[in-house]
């Protein structure tokens, strides 16, 4: 394993391709998706990538499960807003392009102060402490309206200062490219960090803290430094968030926001570096699109999260990598039929189950106004027992078919994995 | 004196309720190594179930039925979800309980709505218990204290004085040995999880009508019991007891005290005005910062004694 990380040959073609492709994607994405909504989503994805990658610095690399991460993004955003307002008032001179760095330094400063207490303990206690600290800071934002703007928050204007090369950040597309540049650089820096000796030591602290102590390292100091670095990138993400919305409210440091980061970092996958990038894309899609489509989105999200934790602890990226491994070992020819079976049965189960959930939500929230609502082209009436029965029957049939397909899939999947393990063992022994 | 006595009694009753919650959490944590993030959700579930059952057949059956139903749900969750992710390690175990807390919040809102429900103290427990210095102490506060204490003594008795307790304690330290003596350790874990959850639900039954039964109750209490456990020392029941009472009394006193640091300065002869530097901090009344105090206590504890009041492990 270690050889892949320490080989700095003059030309690492794979790496150039991946990073070049990433840069190209950031560059051309707004040229392909031109609508206003798409641009908003792309901008949000950009800073979400920074935030979730920095979160994964703690979760994936350091094994630290933080429940108060919004503190660092939120306070970074507040720093940005205050500096931006000072620039607008003419009392502080800094080009807007560099303002997210202020957010980064703000997040870092907060991490330096709060991180020492938070990283005193690892694992479960760390999770509880970060939650408590997050709650402390959130309560404080409501207590000091001069600093945090109380309920309404603090608004700002990003079109301030002198335009550098004619860039004013008035049009969203200019801001998108600023976010894209930050996103690319921060992603690169965080990837490089994971290969430094400190990054490797962080993995060791995650996997075997006692041994690290025997070697002579202070585990708390390693965690603390990682915490500060993560806080810096979180602050940059928060700063870009502030530039994007031109408004920051106390709710930006809320525990719900922290939970949101955790959820999507994990769903994207904490084991691979690119997992949180997938998570960031998913989080924006869910946050903007899914919440438009259905009122039950939080329930669906919860179910998906539990399913991921129980059956795919590597998240989406883990699923992708496992399947790539199957392809690489030429075992996929056995799996495509089971996959087809799953593909045929899952929609039945999901459609049936979702129809019941939608009817429940509709009954609960706005059945008094109109008991009939549209569900994927069907007219469903919550007062009609027939509609409930049809939904239940479809769900039940879907569940039975899915269970058959799942067993069929599991049989083949397990045997394929076992054969791959055997091949790897033979290779290692040779 | 009147204020002091009444506040102290209210603080102790709130503290005992906190301990009922944190004892379940501590039991599960020290026994299975699982930090149950959904613990406060079971508190909420207990309150809602009690509201429903008491609407149907009265409060007294609810006092029994609600914790039992919650224990069944908790046991099933342990058996079919938690045990499945055990092989992936503690982080996955913690996360599956986080997922459960999301789902429970959504489902409770789906069944009982997003507004607070009208879960009231039963008529026979409504009224003053005794009059002290001219102010009345409600029967229900006394009832809460009574239920908590009875429950705690029975847990202690169960763990320390019975054969089942012996097996549970053995399963905690030497699961393999207990297993080879013929006890079903996974089932012991399931029972411990269900028991801990039942304690949380019981706290919900008696706390839901004393405070408020609403969807936000899990989050507000959940944070506090984590503070209780960290301050008391991880896995220590005695520590959890002391810190529950401490935090219960601290917050109860603080909400009714309208003093700020400005008043302190006035005592020593310095008059501060809203134009003095730092007035926004110094002028905050103790009642305003009351919600902060548990968290401040936690931070101070971590700085000066990271292992907590009665903690044994520094880790």
TrEMBL record, chain A:
It is a multi-pass membrane protein. Keywords: Cell membrane, Membrane, Transmembrane, Transmembrane helix. It comes from the Bacteria. GO terms for molecular function: branched-chain amino acid transmembrane transporter activity. GO terms for cellular component: plasma membrane. It is found in: Cell membrane. Its main location: membrane. This is ABC transporter permease. It comes from Piscinibacter gummiphilus.
UniProtKB/TrEMBL annotation, chain B:
The keyword Cell membrane applies. CDD domains: TM_PBP1_LivH_like (cd06582). It is found in: Cell membrane. Its main location: membrane. The keyword Iron does not apply. Keywords: Amino-acid transport, Cell membrane, Membrane, Transmembrane, Transmembrane helix, Transport. Pfam families: BPD_transp_2 (PF02653). One of its GO terms (molecular function) is transmembrane transporter activity. It comes from the Bacteria. GO terms for biological process: amino acid transport. InterPro entries: ABC_transp_permease (IPR001851), BCAA_transport_permease (IPR052157). It is a multi-pass membrane protein. One of its GO terms (cellular component) is plasma membrane. Belongs to the binding-protein-dependent transport system permease family. LivHM subfamily. This is ABC transporter permease. It comes from Piscinibacter gummiphilus.
């Amino acid at each position: 394993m270690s050889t892949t990380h320490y080989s700095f040959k003059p030309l690492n073609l794979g790496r150039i391709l991946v990073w070049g492709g990433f840069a190209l994607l950031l560059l051309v994405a707004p040229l392909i998706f031109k609508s206003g909504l798409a641009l908003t989503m792309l901008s949000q994805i950009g800073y979400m990538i920074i935030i979730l990658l920095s979160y994964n610095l703690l979760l994936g690399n350091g094994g630290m499960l933080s429940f108060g991460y919004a503190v660092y993004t939120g306070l970074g955003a507040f720093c940005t807003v205050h500096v931006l307002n000072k620039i607008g008032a003419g009392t502080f001179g800094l080009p807007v392009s560099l303002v997210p760095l202020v957010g980064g330094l703000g997040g870092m400063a907060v991490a330096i102060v709060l991180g020492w207490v938070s990283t005193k303990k690892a694992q479960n206690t760390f999770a509880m402490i970060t939650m408590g600290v997050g709650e402390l800071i959130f309560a404080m934002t409501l207590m000091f309206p001069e600093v945090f703007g109380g309920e309404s928050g603090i608004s700002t204007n990003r079109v301030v200062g002198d335009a550098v090369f004619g860039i004013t950040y008035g049009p969203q597309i200019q801001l998108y490219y600023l976010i894209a540049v930050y996103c690319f650089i921060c992603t690169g820096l965080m990837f490089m960090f994971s290969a430094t000796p400190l990054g490797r030591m962080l993995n060791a602290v995650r996997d075997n803290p006692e041994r690290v102590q025997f070697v002579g390292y202070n585990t708390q100091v390693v965690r603390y430094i990682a915490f500060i670095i993560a806080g810096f990138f979180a602050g940059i993400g928060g700063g870009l968030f502030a530039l994007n919305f031109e408004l920051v409210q106390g709710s930006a440091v809320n525990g719900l926001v922290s939970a949101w980061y955790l959820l999507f970092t994990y769903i994207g996958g904490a084991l691979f570096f690119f997992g949180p990038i997938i998570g960031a894309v998913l989080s924006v899609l869910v946050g903007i699109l899914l919440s438009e489509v259905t009122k039950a989105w939080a329930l669906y999200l919860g179910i998906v999260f539990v399913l991921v934790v129980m059956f795919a602890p590597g998240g989406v990226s883990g699923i992708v990598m496992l399947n790539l491994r199957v392809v690489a070992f030429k075992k996929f020819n056995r799996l495509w039929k089971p996959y087809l079976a799953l593909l045929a049965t899952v929609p039945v189960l999901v459609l049936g189950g979702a129809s019941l959930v939608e009817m429940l939500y509709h009954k609960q929230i706005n059945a008094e106004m109109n008991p009939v609502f549209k569900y994927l082209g069907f007219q469903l009436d919550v007062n009609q027992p027939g509609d409930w029965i049809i939904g239940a029957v479809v769900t039940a049939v879907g569940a039975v078919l899915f269970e058959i397909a799942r067993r069929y899939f599991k049989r083949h999947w397990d045997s394929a994995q076992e054969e791959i393990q055997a091949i790897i063992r033979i290779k290692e022994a040779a | 004196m009147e204020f002091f006595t009444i506040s102290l009694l209210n603080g102790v009753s709130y503290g005992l309720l906190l301990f009922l919650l944190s004892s379940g959490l501590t039991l599960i944590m020290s026994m299975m190594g699982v930090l149950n993030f959904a613990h406060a959700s079971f508190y909420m579930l207990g309150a809602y179930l009690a509201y429903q059952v008491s609407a149907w057949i009265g409060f007294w059956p609810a006092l029994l039925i609600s914790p039992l139903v919650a224990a069944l749900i908790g046991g099933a969750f342990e058996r079919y979800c938690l045990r499945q992710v055990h092989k992936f390690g503690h982080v996955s175990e913690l996360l599956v309980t986080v997922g459960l807390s999301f789902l429970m919040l959504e489902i409770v809102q789906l069944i009982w709505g997003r507004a607070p429900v009208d879960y009231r103290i039963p008529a026979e427990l409504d009224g003053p218990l005794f009059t002290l210095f001219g102010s009345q102490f409600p029967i229900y506060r006394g009832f809460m204290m009574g239920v908590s204490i009875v429950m705690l003594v029975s847990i202690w008795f169960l763990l320390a004085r019975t054969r089942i307790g012996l097996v549970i304690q053995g399963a905690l330290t030497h699961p393999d040995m207990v297993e080879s003596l013929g006890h079903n350790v996974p089932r012991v874990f399931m029972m411990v999880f269900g028991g801990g959850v039942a304690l949380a639900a019981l706290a919900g039954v008696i706390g839901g009508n004393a405070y408020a039964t609403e969807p936000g109750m899990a989050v507000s209490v959940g944070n506090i019991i984590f503070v209780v456990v960290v301050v008391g020392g991880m896995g220590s029941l005695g520590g959890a007891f002391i810190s529950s009472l401490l935090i219960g009394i601290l917050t109860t006193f603080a909400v009714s005290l309208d003093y700020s640091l400005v008043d302190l300065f006035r005592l020593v002869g310095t008059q501060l005005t809203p134009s003095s530097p730092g007035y926004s901090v110094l002028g905050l009344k103790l009642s305003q910062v009351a919600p902060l105090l548990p968290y401040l206590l936690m931070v101070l504890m971590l700085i000066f004694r990271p292992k907590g009041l009665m903690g044994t492990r520094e880790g």
